[in-house]
Amino acid sequence: MSTATHAGLQGAQRPTRSRYLIMVMLFITVVINYLDRSNLSIAAPALKDEFGLDTVHEGLILSAFGWTYAAMQIPGGWLVDRVSPRLLYAAALILWSAATFFMGFAGSFVILFVLRLAVGALEAPAYPINNRVVTTWFPERERATAIGFYTSGQFVGLAFLTPVLAWLQHHYGWHMVFVSTGLLGIVWGVLWFMIYREPRQFKGANTAEIELIQQGGGVVDLDRRAREKKAPFSWNDLGLVMSKRKLWGVYLGQFCLTSTLWFFLTWFPTYLVKYRGMDFIKSGFLASVPFLAAFIGVLCSGVLSDFLIRRGATVGLARKLPIILGLLISTSMIGANFTDSTPWVIFFLAVAFFGNGLASITWSLVSTLAPVRLLGLTGGVFNFVGNLSSICTPIVIGFLVTKESFAPAIVYVSSLALLGALSYILLVGKVERIEA
């Protein structure tokens, strides 16, 4: 056997690992995505003073993102089924980051509100794109780990960068919080367009890796299928993904799960500063502790789920167990209402957010349950229902809290975590792909 032939066989026997580069790219994108969602919560105490906002108006501005983000989920999901992730993600990144950048120059509540609405609308396709990319690039046995890894970006980015944003605000004003995060996203949008390709077009992926993905359940030709079947929007398709009980189990469960997340993304810094009496710099560092706990939780979730798959567990057990367990752990947030000790408050919130991270591989169920040709639309509906919490949570908390007490808001968020666990237990049932 010649050396060249032997090398060729060796190459065929050893699949490349380009999919892990894609996983890192998704991770970076999610870090930026969540910085642009949460930067307003960092600036909120200063904005409240500068614009003279009461708690109701503060709740409205914190919810502005959610109005358009939720409203654009189904149109965004429809686009994901038709436009290449390379183009759609780059365009979305650059545009929402530009809106974020200009928030740093807002001179009134109204301008800030309108720009925040724009950020929400333009971020809408992000997670359906993430789900589409993972379904294209990863076999089933690696998918939860990939989803867990990139989802961890929403926590680790906030854990390490929240103190940085707090420092920027303290020394340079709230304007720099938006200018810095906006510029970061614009640069990354350009890089995404330059680097990302589908598996068959990606130069670093060899035939063996593509076969490994395809044989393991990855849909490597999804982009080609989208080009061949550019069907118009169909109400029947929407009716299909809105009519399945098991899909409603994950839709409602996602609403409850993200309610906890949106508490941390919106009211959490205000809770520490205004209701627990912490100075802003100290609260910036303490706020990072629950995000670190959530980061650990989400990594444990993906690894545990794929480990169970490899050990022969059913897909249903492997995917649902971390989610249900995590939602039940999240109810521990209620403990913060029964202590005045700062370390114990942070402890209860960290444990709750660890549970939220543990439960956050919910997209793995969408990837497994959704009809293949309606992957983006199903993801859009899932994210639409789930992110209604981004509207409800800030506003409901704004009405529930008083000048003296934040306790009713903690009860509200804890109760929804319990309802989310019940949704996955009672509604989802057997995990299997729905045929269109």
TrEMBL record:
It comes from Achromobacter agilis. Its main location: membrane. GO terms for cellular component: membrane. Gene3D superfamilies: MFS general substrate transporter like domains. Keywords: Membrane, Transmembrane, Transmembrane helix. This is D-galactonate transporter. The chain crosses the membrane at residues 20-35, 87-115, 147-168, 174-195, 247-265, 285-309, 321-338, 344-369, 381-400, 406-427. It is found in: Membrane. It is a multi-pass membrane protein. Residues 22-432 form the Major facilitator superfamily (MFS) profile domain. One of its GO terms (molecular function) is transmembrane transporter activity. InterPro entries: MFS, MFS_dom, MFS_Na/Anion_cotransporter, MFS_trans_sf, Sugar_P_transporter. The keyword Transmembrane applies.
